[in-house]
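Dear colleagues,

I hope this message finds you well. In preparation for our joint manuscript, I am sending the EAL domain-containing protein (Massilia frigida) sequence together with its predicted structure, so that both groups work from identical material. I would be grateful if you could confirm receipt.
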Amino acid sequence: MRNLLRRVRISVSVSALLALLIGLALTALVFASVRRVESHARTLQFKQEANLRINAVSGGLADAIEQLMVVNQLFNTFGVVEREQFRSFTAPLLARYPELQALSFQRLVSDAERPAYEALQRRRVPDFTITEFINERHVPAPRRPFYNVVEYIEPASGNGIALGLDTAAMTTYGDARSRSRRNGRVAATGLLSLVQYRGFHTGFLVLAPVYQRLAPQDTVRQRQRAVIGETAAVFRVGHLIHTLLGNARLLDQPGMSINIYASGSAQATQLAFSNGKAEPPSGATGALPVWLLYNYPAPVNAVFQVAGEPWFIEVAQQPRSFIDIRAGSWYALLGGLLSSLLAAAYIYNLVTRHSTIERVAGERTAALQFANLRLTEDLALRKRTEKALRLREKVIEVSANAVIICNAQGPDYAVEYVNPAFESITGYSAAEVIGKSLKSLHGAGHDQQNTEEISAALREQREGHVVLRNYRKDGSGYWNDLFIAPVRDEGGAISHFVVAQYDISAVMRFEAELEYQANHDALTGLANRHLLAERLSSAIAQAHRAGTELWVVFVDLDRFKFVNDTLGHEAGDAMLRVLGERIKGAVGEGDTVSRMGGDEFVLVLPGHPGDGDGLRVLQRIMDAVAEPLRIQAHEFFVTCSLGVAVYPADGGNADTLTKHADIAMYRAKELGRNTYQFYRPDMNASTLERLRIEADLRHALERNELVLHYQPQIDVKSGAIVGMEALLRWEHPVLGVVSPLRFIGLAEEMGLIIPIGAWVIRTACLQNMAWQTAGMGRLRMAVNLSARQFTGKDLLQSVTDALQESGLSPGCLELELTESMVMSDVENTITILRMLKQLGVHLAIDDFGTGYSSLSYLSRFPLDVLKIDQSFVRDIALGTDAAAIVVSIISLAHSLRLKVIAEGVETAEQLAFLREHGCDEVQGYFFSRPVGALEFASLMAHAPCTMA
Ligand SMILES: Nc1nc2c(ncn2[C@@H]2O[C@@H]3COP(=O)(O)O[C@H]4[C@@H](O)[C@H](n5cnc6c(=O)[nH]c(N)nc65)O[C@@H]4COP(=O)(O)O[C@H]3[C@H]2O)c(=O)[nH]1
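The corresponding structure tokens are as follows:
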């Protein structure tokens, strides 16, 4: 802003200055022009004035000299006149020209004529003698050839002394005499001091020759011969010129000087007249130069002839102030200056005014623009506010949550607005609720617990938050997450309350769902471990309070693994779901059925003290589970084993009771399954043993506690030993020899079966190779594979390694697989079997007939042997289906070109039946129990063997 103002001021100053400069320039121009005209006029005037004086002087002198010529004419016409004549003739002339000091006639007298002449003159003047003037005294003139003697001189008074004066020797005459005589004209002398008057006078002489009458005068010679004298006039030159100029009123002009020289130039010695002073102005006048203030015309000079002699006249004008003479230029100057100043001032004023107007206009415009901007901003703000309000209104309108606005007037807090979401959530229209009490909307008429918080928030005029159950117009309830907040008006007073209601029924449902999921088994929907713990704890507490008994029942499905492994997990899951439902249906309302994972269920039966009802419940559970089960069009028969722990006798807390129930369940399993067992403290020992086995199994391999026993396989036709099955034994340092049935399952669970299985294959191969090397013949070694081992990625490698390491022929190794192993994932099984088959090993299906096998799949497997499960063999003689099954299996195997081996042959009858129906090989206690390597070798030594 300051810069702007500075710029404006500068531009204003420049404009004014420009105007001033132009004005001054014009003024200077006008001034110079006027001054020039004035100067010119003045110079002209001066010239005129000078010329007037020059003319007056030259003309006057000419006139004066003319008087002499008149006298001279007298002499030349009449010859030498008498003295009296001369006096009378010159008297009027002298009267008219008082400046004419003397008129004289000088006669040319030769020396010869001197005496006569003096004598003649003495007649009239007694003492007349020719004299000369030396040292201011008249003395007789010395002799000289010629004398020019003043014979007449008028006026006599004052001039009488000059009579008889010989002027021939007077230098003052100069050559004027000779010139006049030669030319026959008047001639003037230069300036000379006049002696006729007292005092100092400057004058000049004018001579005019007087010739002898009638003598020829045409040539110089003639004129020199004819000359007899001359007339002379003596002028007091100063007086004469003064008179001339004075008469013409041309004297004493202020500031004008007239200098007249009796010479052609301004020679100081020849200054004949001087009048006035024309001194130049002194250098400068103040700060202004002279030329500016003064007119300074050049002096006017002229040369004029006085009796044939050049005279010089100089008329000078003292510089005159223009103010004195003509003030026009000054007026012009002053006027111009004034005009310029006025114009500059005017422009300055105009521009300043314009600038001021512009500035003011600019300021006002800026102010207006600012105001406009503010207005625009205000409008924009208002628009934004309105837009925001509209948006908020819209948001409220379209909000999925209910919004209620009520006034702050208690006790009703009348509803003033509800949004459409409120209408759709509650089923009440706006018209139905507007004007009604806010409290009536929140479950009035229903049993509500949290409305007090709303009342408190309204009463205390503060924010509030509450979750409550609201009811729709149709009476249905929903969960409402309600926020209430006061709304203040512009004065800060609370005028309204806004209530936002979120229908959180879905959230509540979700939470309930989460809670349900957190507490229930996803597969069966039964209580899970977490809920079981809660229920059991509360049941224990309740039983404790009531002093009653409480049963905890551990249920484990028998052979579930088989179904799961055979039909896959989906079938297993379906089975669990069905059986879970059945178990639940078998217990009472207040009982809890939970699933612990896998095929284990834990039940809490609080209301069944030892009144016999509890045992009925257990039986109902077993019966329910044992009912035929149909899954994927197949019918199964599943049983379960139950263990029961009783509070408070078997434990005071949930963990102990559950653990003891689990132990009892194991005992039931050991007892042959499909039964129940109540916990007894001595059961703890076997459980502890299991735990110890688990711990020791981890080190069994590295401690070389595992050994293989071998059971011979006999060819039915020849009775020769053709092979053997390797059966694992754990020679526990404390427990003694542990059956694989006790630890194979554990080894599977613990993942130890992979290294153990690899060890078995390697050991079996090495042993077989050792025996063969020892000459026991080419025997086939059968090795059991576990399910986990079969599907494990290391199987192929461990078999290959074992064969390579031992050098055993692959055809001397037979891998036994169970039905469940191969049927769980047929395609994968085929792949694995083919790879194994490519190695050259034999493949056998173990325990065939106990599980579910699809014959169509069976045909696709590259098998060599079917091994009839010993349970069928055992029952052959019992007249059950077993014999038929065995026959079918042998027939089936042969149709698939597979060898059949029957295991568990204990009697000769069984052997006879098998032989009769074409069974290829047999294995069992009838021939030999599984024995150690040494024993097997001695066995072989007594019984010939070959591999068929
Ligand atoms: N009652 C009766 N039993 C007879 C008779 N002849 C043989 N046995 C027994 O029947 C079982 C046959 O083995 P398995 O069915 O493969 O059943 C085996 C097999 O599934 C598994 N097993 C044994 N060794 C291994 C092994 O090295 N690896 C794997 N994965 N499992 C093995 O442990 C199971 C049990 O093995 P063992 O206790 O050795 O029990 C053996 C054997 O001693 C008989 O005439 N009457």
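For the figure legend, we might mention the following. The domain at 520-681 is CATH 3.30.70.270 (Alpha-Beta Plaits). The mean pLDDT is 84.

With kind regards,
E.M.
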